[in-house]
Amino acid sequence: MKLWAGRFQKALDDKTNDFNSSISFDCRMANEDILGSMAHAAMLQKQGIISEDDGKAIQDGLASIAADLAGGKLQIDMTAEDIHTFVEGELTARIGDAGKRLHTGRSRNDQVALDIRLYLRNRIPALQEQITDLIDVLCDKAEQYADAIMPGYTHLQRAQPITFGHHLMAYAEMLLRDRARLADALTRTNVSPLGSGALASTTYDLDREAVASTLRMNGVTNNSLDGVSDRDFAVELAAALSLIMVHLSRFSEEIILWCSWEFKFIELDDAFSTGSSIMPQKKNPDIAELVRGKSGRVFGDLMTLLTVLKGLPLAYNKDMQEDKEAIFDALDTVTMCLTAFTPMIDTMTVLTENMRKAAAGGFINATDAADYLVGKGLPFRDAYKATGELVALCIRKGLTLETLPLEEYQAVCDLFDNDVFEAISLERCAAMRRVYGGPAPENVRAQVARVRALI
């Protein structure tokens, strides 16, 4: 039976009922619906709005429903309109008229707003833990490869020498921000709208703060219209999830490049790679490619939420039923991606010799050659020009700055001396970049220690 059946003389058309129903996706909020109802019932009893006997019957009935769902003795009726209808119907079937009093002073509008807040509140910490696990793996790898020289890139062109540990910690910083954004979203999610009613609260003497306290929420919404129509918290979470996917997708792109024979900086474990049905030599980074591809799905979920909300007048509108599938899908997708991504990074093999060879072949120590001349008193722009001439000379002769004879250096600028070769060694180039945040191995280890302290 529909909770709104009294006004209508005809049953809802079957196909329209299917279109209108949300049980197929809001069924995952069953526990949250029951917890919210138990807190509401306890408050109604405390305020004298329902009797002590009815309050106890409701509490016992809801607890038995929760236990039976958890134990598999009760299955959710997928023909019910929504999870609220199912729980209230089952409760009334078990305890009789007392079950019909549960909805006193409450609307499905503030009920569903509470349920989704509770559900997201319960999911966010697990996601934060997954991100922490990935950061932890990155810290381990960064510490292990704090001295491993690799080329840093701009425009995907070899630019300056860094270390692999430094590169990995750049992603750790991104993920730290992701974790902080989730914490911010959690704060604004964990607020109770219950008591807002359909839009204009109620004439019953409700104690909204007591319900929020029972549910371990941070407080209550301050305006009943906003309480039922606000989904900013879902949009904010979807935006945070989208940024997580941006970071995972960028990392995936680099993993895919590094796996290729053109780079061959790493090799993924067989457990996180697939082969080809026709080419026996292939080892494909499918996990990284899927993570990269699924980013668009999460971005789409964010766009869905923004589009649903952008034209809605206050207060509740049925359009808002569309919030759940979008935010649930975004959560599920990010959770699944992190589940696969973290062990993929943890088990990858780092080919440090290939990284070092690539770093040696791209003139990425040219800035250090210019800085050498600056140290001898030459203005930077003149030093820049002289070093550019040296690079052009190396390219013509098929040499590198390390293998170019000293006399060739001195023909371009007489300030060069034998110590230039020490100054432009890749290890020294990285080690001398000790500015806070730079790639010097000692910096990388200090950054790892700082991040570990934070997590």
Describe this structure in words.
With 455 residues, the protein is mainly alpha-helical. It has 3 domains: 5-104, Fumarase C, Chain B, domain 1, CATH 1.10.275.10; 119-135 and 162-206 and 222-357, Fumarase/aspartase (Central domain) (Fumarase C, Chain A, domain 2, Up-down Bundle); 360-454, Ribonucleotide Reductase Protein R1, domain 1. Helix content is 62%, strand content 4%. It has 19 helices and 4 strands. The chain has helices at 14-20, 23-26, 30-46, 52-71, 83-95, 108-144, 164-189, 208-214, 224-229, 232-259, 286-310, 322-347, 352-360, 366-375, 380-397, 406-412, 420-423, 426-431, 441-454, and strands spanning 149-154, 157-163, 266-267, 349-350. The strands form 2 sheets. The chain has a two-stranded antiparallel ribbon with strand order 1-2. The chain has a two-stranded antiparallel ribbon with strand order 3-4. Helix 3 (30-46) runs antiparallel to helix 4 (52-71) and helix 6 (108-144) runs antiparallel to helix 7. The longest helix has 37 residues, at 108-144. It is elongated, with a radius of gyration of 31 Å. The two termini are 50 Å apart.
